[in-house]
Every structure is written in structure tokens, then in C-alpha cells.
């Protein structure tokens, strides 16, 4: 088999997860934007649509029959959030509950992960903080990439040195992004997870294998084996961090659905009863501006559900380990 059959060039890397979505606006809505702000924008959009249609005379908001019928539908829809929230909480709690042997295996798995990194990094101890673990992992990736380059450059092959330098640059770019994110955000935040997702470990595993295979007789195996082992550890760690992040976001979403759902039902019920008050209903109840604000409130639970689910579903659509095959993200 020829040398070119195994060459992996940095320019051929598949798109990183952040590159899956081409539009920056769409990317902001799906993943990067603050979830509260995105939800507020969705609610504001509902209010704006109702306000514009009311101003154009397409819809009427001052007749008791249609308005109360619509509000009863809103109330019924928001009450269905109760079983939805219970289901969401069951998903979260299912990961917390377990038999003693299951909990022991889970704890032993985390310990084994730390022990593996300690052996790869060549350090006696690793600080217990998750952020310290990630920093040690990225530092080990950098060191391993440097060892791969040094081993390749020592052969005197310009081609091997060039490819190894490109490989090291790709690793450094990824680990620098993770380090910057960790300095700005807490462990488990979306920003730190996004930086980890941007490191294209699938390509790096393939590139390390091709470098070693093409020059198997010229270089030692140890640096390449350490590099691949560290990348695999990074893959597992990234998937674990993604699981913790999803668990935290789902728990947050369930609380928000209860809070906003209660508020939406209360406001809609009071709005309906205002039509039964003696005399004419308050002016705000029959005004377009008032009904627009009401629309923002009753759509708030759906807006939060949409905001959080968009990010979670987008993140979960990324391949979990990305090391057997190079995919498009």
C-alpha cells in the first residue's frame, strides 16, 4: 500500500460540532445563546405576532366567547406540563438511584478514570476538583503531541516532521480552547463542554495511527500509543461531562416548567374571570396590547421547553465518542 493511502492532512478534518450549523444566528438560537434570553425572545415573538395581527384587524381580542375559549385551551395545555415535568424528573432521578453494587461500580469507574490519567500524565496525584482533572488531561494531550513530534522529527524525514507538526498544532489549538473555556466558565457549563466538543479527537486518533503506520520502522511505538490512549480517555471524559451537563439542564428545565406553568395558568384564569366581573371588563383585558402581554405569559412555558430542548437535542445529536469513524459531526 502506498504512502499516500495513509496520509491524513489537517485540511481534511471533518467539521467540528460548532461548524455543523452554518448560520451564526441559528447557532446562537440552538446552542450558544443564554437559554433564558432565547426563551424570552420566543415569548416576545408570540406577543408580537398577536399584537400585529390584532392591529391589522385579523384577530379580535375583545369578545368574551373566543377569548375565554382560547384561554381555556391555554390552561389545559399548561396543565399537561405536570406529567411532562414528572417524566423529566424521572429521567434525572433514574441516574441518581441504584442498588449498592451499581453505585459501587459507578464510583469505581470514576476512580479508574482518574487512575488512568494519573498513569498517562506520570504524576503521583491529581487534584480532586473536576476542573483540575480536565486541565491535567489537556496538559497530557499537549505533552503527548509534543512527544509524537519529537519522535517523528528525530527520524530526519521532512515529510514525517511536517505532518507531525501539523498534528501537534491541531492538538494545541483544541487544548488551548478548552483551557480558555475553563478559565472563564465553571466545570459543567455549556461553554466548557462546547470547547471540548470542538476538539476533533476522531481525526486526531486517525492521524496518529497513520503517522505511526507509515513510518512504523522508523519511530518507536510508545509516544503514539500514549497519544491514542490519552485521546480515548478524553473521549470518555467528554461524554461523561456531556451527561452531567444534560442532567443538570434537564433538572433546571423541570423547575422552570413548574414556575412558568403555574404563572401562566394563574394569569389566564384571572383573565377569563375578568369577563364575568360586573360591568364592562377592564380596558386592559380587551386591548390588543394587554392580550399581547398575556400571550407572552401563557407561551412562556413552551418557550422555555423549546429553548432548553433545542440545545440538548443538538448536543445529543453529536456522535458520542467519535473515534471509530470520522463523521460530519
Distance between the termini: 29 Å
Radius of gyration, in Å, reads 27 Å
Proportion of helical residues: over 70%
Low-confidence stretches: 1-7, 10-21, 325-329
Largest sheet: none
Oligomeric composition of the shown chains: single chain
How many independent structural domains?
Answer: 1
Number of strands: 0
| Fraction of residues in β-strands | under 5%
Shape descriptor reads elongated
How would you state the average pLDDT, rounded? Answer: 80
Number of helices: 13
The arrangement of helices and strands along the chain is HHHHHHHHHHHHH
Structural class estimated from helices and strands? mainly alpha
Transmembrane segments: 36-57, 69-93, 256-277, 283-306
Pfam families: DUF7972
Biased composition (Polar residues): 10-20
Region (Disordered): 1-20
What does the model show?
By secondary structure, the protein is mostly helical. The protein has one domain (3-316). 74% of the residues lie in helices and 0% in strands. It is built from 13 helices and no strands. It has helices at residues 24-32, 35-55, 64-79, 81-96, 100-121, 130-153, 158-184, 190-198, 201-214, 222-274, 283-286, 288-298, 300-316. α6 packs antiparallel against α10 (222-274), α7 runs antiparallel to α9 (201-214) and α9 packs antiparallel against α10. It is elongated, with a radius of gyration of 27 Å. The relative contact order is 0.16. The model is unreliable at 1-7, 10-21 and 325-329 (pLDDT under 50). This is DUF4239 domain-containing protein. The chain crosses the membrane at residues 36-57, 69-93, 256-277, 283-306. Keywords: Membrane, Transmembrane, Transmembrane helix. Residues 1-20 are annotated as: Disordered. Residues 10-20 have a biased composition (Polar residues).
